[in-house]
Design goal:
Layout (H helix, E strand, L loop, with lengths): L7 H10 L1 H21 L4 E8 L6 H11 L2 H11 L6 H7 E6 L3 E8 L2 H22 L12 H21 L6 H27 L9 E2 L14 H26 L6 H8 L3 E8 L13 H8 L16 H18 L5 E7 L3 H15 L13 E7 L12 E8 L6 H13 L4 E10 L14 H13 L3
Parallel strand pairs: 5-9, 6-7, 6-8, 8-9
Antiparallel strand pairs: 1-3, 1-4, 2-3
Family: Belongs to the CpsC/CapA family.
Pfam families: Wzz (PF02706)
Protein name: Membrane-bound polysaccharide biosynthesis protein
């Protein structure tokens, strides 16, 4: 798994074998999202549009949007609303403005109720139009004329002077008088055209004409993130974190999964693979921690990153595999002798396989037969953290029985070193694989492969399996 590419089949295996854990953590994530929504009260957002007549450049529109949310406008809106406990600084964080097509500025306000959001948005739009009109050139002092209005006044005065000069010119039909009047009329026309272009191109001339496009609509729903969105986000986040956590743990897993890797880590050869029907204990053994029941309830008491167990053959087929392992042990040894069967603590599948292997060795052919007898086997358990193998006495070798995907190369190397320290040579490795047992047949119904079973017993008595 650590060197394989993560594929959809891996995700599917997580969903099939960890669905209980995923469901529990998804519910926990939904509860966390609900708790988060309780910390943040609901918010409602209303919007109003302000029309800016005339021709505006994009930069000028952006400037007006900034003015709409400036402190000068927000402070005036806060003073007009007069909400207790809400300062202008808090309103500054609740308002926004953006430009849109058609010289429109969309002003939005967020509050704790739909009514407050509507009032805030309307007041903000009104204060923006008023403030824009003031900075466009309107003055509270009627006796003061500045900006474009002053320019228009000067143009009007100039037109009157032109008229006076034209009347004061020689009314006769001399060439000089006609030329003077013509030049004065050209000057008048030029001034009028310049003022017309100024009115069309200067946005400041139209700022006083901003229009609020109706009152803000009262919001019908909460502003995001809503309570439902927070609950769904929490559930999805916990679900994804659980899946990613499984994938990360699988990528970091260094347990050996193939028989050649296991045999190489122990410095020995593979004798064969045996099947062990999967079983669940009927009652909790002594010494098992109480939280093992919780692990079983959550579905994390079994590995998810191993292939699904195959369907087991019948009892006769399983015995054939054990007999072949015993036969290979007999062929490797010069004479029948006693061997240690080393099983690591916590490997229940290997422990049952070792017990079945020892029982099969005891029921094998007798040493006086033509095929010689099977070696005697004694099962011993070894701790994984501090492996300790009994010293060599009457035994003359060790056979390691384990299940693939359960131990790392460092752990197996420590077991091999412990066997060497005790004077035992690791003569072989047996891989124990959990399989699904077939349903039991009625006692009065003979098995389908009764004939091969008789052939197996002839092999046991007559020759190698």
């Amino acid at each position: 798994m650590s060197d394989d590419t993560i594929r959809l089949v891996t995700i599917g295996r997580i969903l099939r074998r960890r669905w209980r854990l995923l469901a529990i953590l998804t519910v926990v994530g939904a509860l966390v999202g609900y708790g988060t929504s309780m910390l943040f009260p609901p918010r409602y957002t209303a919007s109003a549009s302000v029309l800016l007549p005339g021709q505006w450049e994009e930069r000028a529109l952006l400037t007006q949007a900034e003015i709409a949310t400036s402190s000068a406008v927000v402070d005036r809106a806060a003073a007009a609303l007069g909400w207790k406990g809400v300062s202008a600084g808090e309103l500054q964080d609740r308002v926004s403005a953006k430009t849109s097509d058609g010289n429109l500025i969309k002003i939005s306000g967020t509050a704790d109720t739909p009514e407050h959001a509507q009032r805030l948005c309307d007041q903000l739009a009104q204060q923006f139009v008023t403030f824009a009109a003031r900075i466009a050139g309107d003055s509270t002092d009627p006796g003061t004329t500045t900006g474009p209005d002053a320019l228009r006044q000067q143009v009007a005065d100039t037109n009157r002077r032109i008229t006076d000069l034209a009347n004061a010119a020689n009314p006769g039909q001399t060439v000089e008088s006609v030329q003077v009047r013509t030049e004065l009329e050209k000057l008048r026309t030029t001034l009028q055209e310049a003022m017309k272009k100024l009115d069309q191109t200067d946005p400041a001339a139209n700022k006083a004409g901003m229009v609020v496009m109706g009152p803000a609509a009262r919001p019908a729903g909460e502003a995001p993130p809503t309570r439902v969105q927070l609950i769904l986000a929490g559930a999805l986040l916990f679900f994804l974190l659980t899946v990613v956590g499984h994938l990360t743990a699988a990528r970091m897993n260094r347990r050996l999964r193939t028989e050649p890797e296991i045999a190489a880590a122990l410095g020995s050869v593979l004798l064969g693979t045996v099947d062990v029907p999967g079983e669940r204990p009927a009652h909790r053994p002594e010494g098992v921690r109480p939280r093992s029941g919780l692990r079983r309830l959550m579905g994390i008491d079994t590995r998810w990153d191993v292939p699904a167990p195959l369907m087991s053959t019948d009892e006769a087929g399983r015995r054939i595999r054990y007999q072949r392992v015993c036969a290979r042990l007999r062929d490797q040894l010069p004479a029948p002798r006693l061997l240690l069967v080393v099983v690591l603590d916590g490997d229940d599948v290997a422990r049952r396989a070792a017990g079945q292997l020892a029982a099969e060795a005891r029921s094998g052919p007798c040493p006086s037969s033509s095929s010689r007898g099977y070696p005697a086997l004694r099962v011993v358990g070894v701790s994984v953290s501090r492996p300790m193998v009994p010293d060599r006495d009457s035994e003359s070798g060790a056979v390691v029985v384990l299940s693939p995907g359960s131990w790392t190369a460092q752990q197996l190397a420590a077991v091999a070193e412990a066997c060497a320290d005790a004077g035992h040579e690791v003569v072989g490795v047996v891989s124990a694989v959990a399989v699904r047992g077939r349903p039991t047949r009625p006692a009065d119904r003979p098995p389908d492969n009764a004939t091969p079973a008789l052939a197996v017993r002839s092999h046991e008595k007559g020759g190698s399996a």
